Structures are given as structure tokens and as C-alpha cells.
């Protein structure tokens, strides 16, 4: 399930994610002989609508897509809130996206006595369509290149990283004000978009629709059939779809920009296109940066997610909370995703491809006679890496966060900072005193689980001889405890959950610095180390951001629009073909059918997460042969969820919802050999509506009046 992925609070929270590098790739251990191919298209095929890939489509598929084709595709596509993609699929404002994108909206419109996760939802009439408060969809209607303004301002700012970044932000603010006052831009939502890490910039204007109503959503058992075990796998059997409608002045929006539905529009080896908003890729990262991810960042992220998920599962065994269960799903989804990425980073063949491309890129840049300062970018990134590696342990394992070390120890770090303020700037401490509030702990059992996980990670990452670890694991009798034992002792012995105790500390200010409370004592050891490392890392991160921008500008100067930029949750179009692949000693078919859904249900004896609702238990025979899902070689990532899959006729033939396990290294490299996108088949959506939900109204709207009548007869 391609949902926006959870990014743990590692190394300054989210501030440094994706900006780190490691040792130079110049002495790479990877074998890069003539059999290893590295291509600019290893960076993917997430083309922008600023520079439509008509020449590439013509060369690759003999398909001449003119400007009107791209304009209509862009205007029919939507961004669903700030986390998914969607599209118009009828002239009456009907919007299609994934079930997992709609789940929150379904919860929002659930009425007393209802459980839409269990029953699904279908509005039989317009009057029954339910408005989702706060939900919006955005349509990209204006694009303006602002590269020249930004790059000129950055050049004038000098060589200091912070000054360059500030200059860029000032231009962003100025162009929004400038264009926001123009008649043809007024009323639009304006957003600055960065491409090639700063090689190009654009201003996008979105028309926002805020009256969005739920029309159709299947049951959770169908939308997320197979649950986490089936996530990122294929063959797949999930009806991961939902439909909404945009209203304008209280009536369904009338639009000419939409994808006509074609329930029989895919053919093996024929081109197919995904239009959506891929969230983030990091394919322009240097080999040095990827080595850092492989050695430090990604393994630490995996351990954090694994431990937090385990703590939540232990807590939820008795709490039985749906919100906690959803959080566990999110962790498990991320865990599988990061494990797949790590497997890719540890794959010598994939890393060899990155080395080969990097060497080719350096040679091509040198042949372009680019300035020496630019050509030194790789070495500069690698030089910063050595410092970041030395800072990683303290900046990562001592970083205070409720999700990394629990609320009480995080609060102890906050109090430590307040104590320092009281000792050095008492007037400022006086003003900040009202912010010193005892955290509201929902579950001490969960709190203990988070703290135990933190101590486990600190022990592994910092070592048993580290002063912080020694202090944490030394019991009252002077003997070493396990992380679990230490967590139980620390929480039991601390008074930081006592408002009166905390209030007294805050009033006396400096008392914090001498308090014997065990959590405060631990925070005093770790916090200053974290702060020192974090400040240095933040400065280096700013330098890295400028260097990555320089690298992106080189990429654009050398290859132009022949190579698309990394994903930035901005609208893209990417191409692929419908194609099977070899897996598990056999061959994956290009499509699955409803018969496979029932086989999986029967094989697991109707047990969760392969159970089915009552109305699905006795299907008509005609349903079993209908297509359900299909695969293609398209390049997607989290954020593409809900993207329409269209053919050359701009017909909606499917709905993207996931990728296979082999696609997970797509975070840093696109290799279409076994990479597959997984979509709900348009024919499967119609079949489910026809045979199970009796959603005649939607069938008629999606297929047209005459086709809808035929469909009704066929049922």
C-alpha cells in the first residue's frame, strides 16, 4: 500500500532526512566492469508537465502526444488533500482515488450507529452523498518557470549556505506576491516547486475545490484485503478504490476535463501512463550518501520502527484501540518499505549501477567544461560525510522525541534546557515558565515500552561503555540492568509525572540542574551531547543542501529534460508497459481475477486479514472471471496512491495503489526489470459495482448512458 511513508524522528527529527552523505565513492568496492550498466534513466521516468516528454514517448512507443494531450491529462488529474493523488472520471465532478486514501474521510462522515469500515458506503442518490469537512482536491491550472529569478538571487547571496537558502526563500515569497496579484492567478493556491534539488524552479497555481463529498467506498476487508502480509506483494487481490464528487455552488461540478472510464482498456506490452503526485525519491543522491544510508541511517530507522511497533502491539493487546491499530499498520507498512530499501542498498549490482552512472555523470560534466567548483561537488559532499558520520551516534541515539525515548525522558530533556536557561538567562526562563507542563501520559505501560526501546537502541548504537548508557543501565544496587529493567526502574523512581514536583522545579529554576531525579540525571548527561552534535549537523546539512542543489543544476546542464527530476509531491506523468515478470520460480500474470480473491479467502479459512464481508460470500459465477488487479512497469512511489492509470486515448483503465517488493529500492534507483506498479483494474471496479454493490447509478455515470444500460442488463 503506497501511503506517505512514516519518517522517524532520527537525527534532528525530519530536518536532515535525505541530506546526509558518507565516504567518497572514489574508492568504491563495487565491481563496475562493462557488464554493469548505469543509465540516466536509473533516475526514473517521473516526467514533469513543465517539460512534457513528447519526444521520448514518440521515440519509445511511436506515440505522438501533442500539447493538448498533456494539457487535458494535467487538468483531469488532481491532488487529493496533501497526501494522495486522484482524478476526475466524469463530466459531473466524480473523483476517483484509493480506499486507503479515503479511509480517514470515511471515518469523518460516519454517523452514530454506523461502521463504514465494516459496511462500506454507497450513496444511491446525489442527496445521500456526504460532505467531508476539511477535505479538498487541487487541480494544477497554471505553471510559471521562476528558475532565473531564484538562481540570480542565490548567486548574489555569496558563498555562505545559510545566506543562499535565505535568498531563495525571499524569492519564493516575492514571486507568490507578484503572481498572486495578477488577474489570471488570483484565487489560486500558489506553491513553489523545486526540481533537480535546485537545478530548476517553478511556481504552480492550483484551483482548490473544498466541497468534496463521499460517494462510494468498499468495506475495509476489500480495500485492504490481505492486510500487511500482502502489502508490497503480487499477485494481489484488493479493491483499493473509492469515489468522491466535487461540488461547485452546491451542485455537482461540470467539467470537460476528465478521464473516460474503459473497463477493457489494457493490453500486454502496450504503453500505459500514470499521472499523479509521487512524494519523494532520492535518486540524485551520490554513492557516498547512499553508503551512509546503508551503513547508518536506514538500519537505525528500521530498528526504531520495529521497536515502536512492538511496543504498540504489546499495549494494544489489552487496549484494543482502532487508532493504535492504524498506527501499527503505518509502522508495519514503513518497516516493510525500509527493509526493501535496505535490501536494495545492500545489493552490489544496484550499487554498482549507481557507481557507473556517477562516473559517467562526472565525465559528461567535465566534457561540458563546467567550472572546477562544480566538478568538485562530489568531493565536497564526501568531505562533509566524514563529519556527519562522527556526529551520527550522539545526534541520533540521544535525540529527544516522544516516539524515540518516551514522553517523560523527552520532558526531562526539555527541563534540562530550561534549567540551563534559568542559570544563564533568568529573565527568559521566567517568561518560559508557563511552557513547563507535565506531559499527559496515556499509558505508563506504553511509556515504559518506548523508554526500553530507546535504551536498547542506545546500548547497541553507543556501546555499553558509553557514560549515558552506563548511567541508564546501572541499578540502585550498582549492578547492570537490562534495558527493560532499567526502563521500569527509571519510570517508577522518577517524579516527573507529578505536577507539584515539576512546578516546584520550574519555580526554583536552577534546582533542575542539581535534582537527583533519575530521568533528569540521565538527561543532563545526554542533552548537551545531543545539542552539540545536532548544531554541527544542522550547519553541515545546510551546506549539503546547497551542494545537492549544485549537483542538480549540473544534472540539468548536462542532460537537460532528457532526465526527469526526483519526486517532490508535484504532478508528474510516467510511462510504462503492461508486463508480467518472473518471481518465486514461476511467472506473475499481468492480471488477477476475482476467482483468486476467493481462492485466497478459502485458503486462509476466511480468517483476517483474508476474511470477506457477508455480501461477498456467495458471488455470482460471472464475477469470478472478471479482472481485479494488474501490473505494469510504471515508476511510482508513495504519494502516487490514487493516481489514475490511463492509456494512449486518455482513458482511465486502472487505479494505482501499490508496488511489488522488487519496487522498494525505487527510493534511490529505478530499475524496471522486476519493478512493478500494481493497480486496481477498471473492469474490476465496474464488476464489483455491478455484481456486489448494485451501484447502477455509478456504472451509468462512468461508462455513459448506453453502456450503463447494457451493464445493468448484463448483471
Q: What does this protein look like?
A:
By secondary structure, the chain is of the alpha+beta class. Among the domains are: about 50-135 and about 210-280 and about 565-715, Thrombin, subunit H, CATH 2.40.10.120; about 375-565, no CATH class. It contains 26 helices and 22 strands. Strands 2, 3, 4, 5, 6, 7, 8, 9, 10, 11 and 12 form an 11-stranded antiparallel beta sheet that branches. A hairpin with a 4-residue loop joins strand 20 and strand 21. Residues about 1-30 and about 705-715 have low confidence and may be disordered.
CATH class of the domain at 50-136 and 210-280 and 566-714: Mainly Beta
Structural class: alpha+beta
Q: State the shape.
A: globular
State the end-to-end distance: 31 Å
Low-confidence stretches: 1-28, 706-715
Assigned CATH architecture of the domain at 50-136 and 210-280 and 566-714: Beta Barrel
Helical run tally: 26
What profile does the largest beta sheet have?
11 strands, antiparallel
Mean pLDDT score = 91
Q: What's the CATH topology name of the domain at 50-136 and 210-280 and 566-714? A: Thrombin, subunit H
Strand tally: 22
Q: How large a portion of the residues is in β-strands, by DSSP E?
A: 5-15%
In helices, the fraction of residues equals: 40-55%
| C-alpha Rg (nearest Å) | 27 Å
Amino acid at each position: 500500500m503506497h501511503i506517505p511513508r512514516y519518517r522517524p524522528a532520527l537525527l534532528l527529527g525530519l530536518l536532515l532526512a535525505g541530506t546526509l552523505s558518507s565516504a567518497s565513492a572514489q574508492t568504491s568496492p563495487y565491481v563496475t566492469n562493462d557488464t554493469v550498466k548505469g543509465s540516466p534513466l536509473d533516475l526514473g521516468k517521473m516526467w514533469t508537465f513543465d517539460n512534457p516528454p513528447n519526444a521520448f514517448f514518440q521515440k519509445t512507443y511511436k506515440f505522438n502526444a501533442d500539447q493538448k494531450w498533456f494539457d487535458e491529462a494535467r487538468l483531469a488529474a488532481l491532488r487529493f488533500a496533501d497526501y494522495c493523488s486522484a482524478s476526475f472520471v466524469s463530466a459531473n465532478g466524480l473523483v476517483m482515488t484509493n480506499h486507503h486514501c479515503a479511509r480517514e474521510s470515511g471515518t469523518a462522515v460516519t454517523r452514530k450507529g454506523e461502521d463504514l469500515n465494516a459496511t462500506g458506503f454507497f450513496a444511491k442518490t446525489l442527496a445521500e452523498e456526504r460532505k467531508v469537512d476539511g477535505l479538498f482536491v487541487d487541480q494544477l491550472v497554471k505553471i510559471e518557470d521562476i528558475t532565473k529569478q531564484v538562481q540570480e538571487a542565490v548567486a548574489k547571496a555569496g558563498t555562505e549556505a545559510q545566506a543562499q537558502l535565505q535568498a531563495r526563500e525571499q524569492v519564493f515569497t516575492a514571486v507568490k506576491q507578484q503572481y498572486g496579484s495578477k488577474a489570471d492567478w488570483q484565487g489560486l493556491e500558489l506553491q513553489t516547486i523545486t526540481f533537480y534539488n535546485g537545478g530548476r524552479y517553478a511556481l504552480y497555481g492550483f484551483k482548490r475545490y473544498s466541497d468534496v463529498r463521499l460517494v462510494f467506498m468498499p468495506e475495509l476487508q476489500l480495500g485492504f484485503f490481505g492486510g500487511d502480509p500482502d502489502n508490497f506483494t503480487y499477485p494481489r487481490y484488493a479493491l483499493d478504490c473509492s469515489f468522491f464528487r466535487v461540488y461547485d455552488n452546491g451542485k455537482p461540478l461540470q467539467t470537460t476535463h476528465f478521464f473516460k472510464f474503459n473497463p477493457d482498456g489494457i493490453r500486454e506490452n502496450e504503453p500505459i501512463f500514470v499521472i499523479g503526485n509521487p512524494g519523494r525519491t532520492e535518486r540524485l543522491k551520490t554513492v557516498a550518501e547512499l553508503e551512509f544510508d546503508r551503513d547508518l541511517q536506514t538500519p537505525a530507522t528500521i530498528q526504531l520502527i520495529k521497536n515502536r511497533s512492538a511496543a504498540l502491539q504489546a499495549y494494544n493487546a489489552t487496549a484494543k484501540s482502532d487508532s493504535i491499530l492504524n498506527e501499527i499498520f503505518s509502522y508495519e507498512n514503513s518497516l516493510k518499505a525500509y527493509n526493501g530499501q535496505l535490501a536494495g542498498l545492500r545489493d552490489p549490482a544496484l550499487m554498482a549501477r549507481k557507481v557507473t552512472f556517477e562516473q559517467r555523470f562526472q565525465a559528461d560534466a567535465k566534457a561540458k567544461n563546467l567550472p572546477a567548483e562544480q566538478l568538485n561537488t562530489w568531493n565536497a559532499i564526501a568531505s562533509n560525510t566524514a563529519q556527519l558520520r562522527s556526529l551520527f551516534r550522539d545526534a541520533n541515539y540521544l535525540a529527544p522525541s516522544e516516539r524515540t525515548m518516551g514522553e517523560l525522558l523527552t520532558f526531562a530533556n526539555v527541563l534540562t534546557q530550561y534549567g540551563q536557561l534559568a542559570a544563564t538567562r533568568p529573565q527568559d526562563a521566567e517568561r518560559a515558565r508557563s511552557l513547563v507542563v507535565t506531559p499527559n501520559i496515556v499509558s505508563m505501560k506504553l511509556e515504559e515500552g518506548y523508554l526500553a526501546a530507546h535504551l536498547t537502541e542506545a546500548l547497541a548504537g553507543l556501546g555499553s561503555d558509553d557514560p549515558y548508557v552506563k548511567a541508564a543501565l546501572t541499578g540502585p544496587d550498582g549492578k547492570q540492568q537490562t534495558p527493560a529493567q532499567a526502563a521500569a526502574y527509571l519510570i517508577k523512581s522518577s517524579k516527573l509525572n507529578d505536577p507539584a514536583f515539576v512546578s516546584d522545579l520550574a519555580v526554583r529554576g536552577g534546582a533542575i540542574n542539581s535534582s537527583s531525579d533519575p530521568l533528569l540525571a540521565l538527561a543532563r548527561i545526554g542533552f548537551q551531547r545531543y545539542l552539540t552534535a545536532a548544531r554541527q549537523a544542522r550547519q553541515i546539512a545546510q551546506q549539503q543542501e546547497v551542494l545537492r542543489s549544485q549537483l542538480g543544476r549540473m544534472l540539468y546542464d548536462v542532460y537537460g529534460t532528457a532526465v526527469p527530476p526526483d519526486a517532490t509531491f508535484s504532478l508528474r506523468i510516467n510511462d510504462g508497459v503492461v508486463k508480467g515478470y518472473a518471481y518465486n520460480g514461476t511467472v506473475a500474470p499481468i492480471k488477477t481475477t476475482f476467482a483468486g480473491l476467493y481462492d485466497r479467502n478459502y485458503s486462509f479459512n476466511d480468517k483476517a486479514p483474508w476474511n470477506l464481508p457477508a455480501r461477498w460470500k456467495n458471488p455470482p459465477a460471472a464475477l469470478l472471471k472478471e479482472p481485479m488487479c494488474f501490473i505494469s512497469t510504471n515508476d511510482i512511489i508513495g504519494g502516487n496512491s490514487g493516481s489514475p492509470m490511463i492509456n494512449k486515448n486518455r482513458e482511465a483503465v486502472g487505479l494505482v495503489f501499490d508496488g511489488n517488493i522488487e519496487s522498494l529500492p525505487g527510493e534511490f534507483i529505478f530499475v524496471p526489470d522486476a519493478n512493478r506498479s500494481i493497480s486496481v483494474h477498471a473492469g474490476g471496479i465496474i464488476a464489483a459495482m455491478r455484481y456486489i454493490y448494485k451501484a447502477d447509478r455509478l456504472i451509468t455515470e462512468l461508462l455513459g448512458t448506453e453502456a450503463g444500460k447494457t451493464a445493468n442488463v448484463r448483471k
